[in-house]
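S.,

Sequence below, as promised.
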Amino acid sequence: MGHVTSRDAYQNLEQRINWFTQGAPASGTLYKILQVLFTEKEARVMARLPVRPFTLRRAARVWNTSEAKAEKVLDHLCEKALLVDSYHNGVRKFVIPPPMAGFFEFALMRTRGDIDQKYLSELYYQYMNVEEDFVKELFYATETKLGRVFVQEPVLGNENMSHILDYERASHIVEEADYIGLGLCYCRHKMAHAGHPCEIGAPLDVCLTFGNVARSLAEHGGHARLISKEEAMDALERSYAANLVQIGENVRDNPAFICNCCGCCCEALQAARKFAPMQPVATTGYIPAVHAEQCVGCGKCEKACPIFAMKVQTVDCGGVQKKRAVLDPEICLGCGVCARNCPTGALHMERRPVQIITPVNSTHRFVLQAIEKGTLQNLIFDNEAFADHRALAAVLGVILKLPPLKQALASRQLQSVYLDRLLSAQLERNRKRQERSEHETK
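The prediction came back faster than expected:
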């Protein structure tokens, strides 16, 4: 009977995780991963928590216990980086981080002895690199991506630097952050334990987190170390020098992380290699242009490209066969690593012809992804998470700003008369605004 109870605890946790827009497909390997990360008791209590931010009072009510006892449990879960806490107007709130970028990574962002990191890494490798269902779900289940690439700023010319938007610059994210955390690169740490060390010997201590995530990971359990802006810029410079790709949360305001990724270890870049031309993350607004007259066909760009988007081929140059760099624009992420490695300056980063749209913030991204996956009702009707009208209003506020097609998708998923009326009212306001504009024009 005890065995059945234990299995039920982990299966219930698995089901709760999959209420996230970004879940984790069930498998025997996932079950083993959860057993490593959570005790049976932790799995049982976590499975009952809301998927959106909640207070101590709400947790105590969900668990039917006192706030003092609930706080001890919550503190312990934060120490294991299974929860992240934050403060809003003096009120402490908690949230279950998603598997990625979240509690999967946090378990390997420092060396620790309370879990078997080698065994966990082997399980991660099996789950992500062999079984692949999780990676496909993570990167390809929605049009709106979890992550986006930052262009390497040092390779941009003066003209591009004058036009680059603030949120496109990793340096701006560093400059604006109130807290910055530095931890081990989960991907390279995992691959080293799993017997597949980084092929280029990239540095480990370059994983950057920001804001409340950084503060919570540093204060609880030391999963990250709080650093200065100067140290963060040093981490970026070391990553540029190692030909790493900067991939951060796909939002404009206050991204929670920037990873510095190699093609041999990073799940996103591995996916880009395996499933090209499908792109697992949002590209930068830039793409390299090859100036053939300057290219000598040395192959350094091909060797440096982490996803094999650049090739050196023999081409006809006025009747003479010469080796030249050739870009596959469907694959290219626009990171700028190739341009950094070109010894003759033949590669120049130029603006893409189509603008890359980036969600405003995490709520905007969650709602877009939930609409695209058909799971918006999970956000709205998670009883604990959206018990108050303000939280519901925040989600609906995002929906009302979406294009009409996605509003219609959201309405169908919710099957909500209330939402339909809100959308109808929005359309009516837009119609009247248009009429006024036309009248004023006349």
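The two ends are 79 Å apart (CA to CA).

Coffee later?
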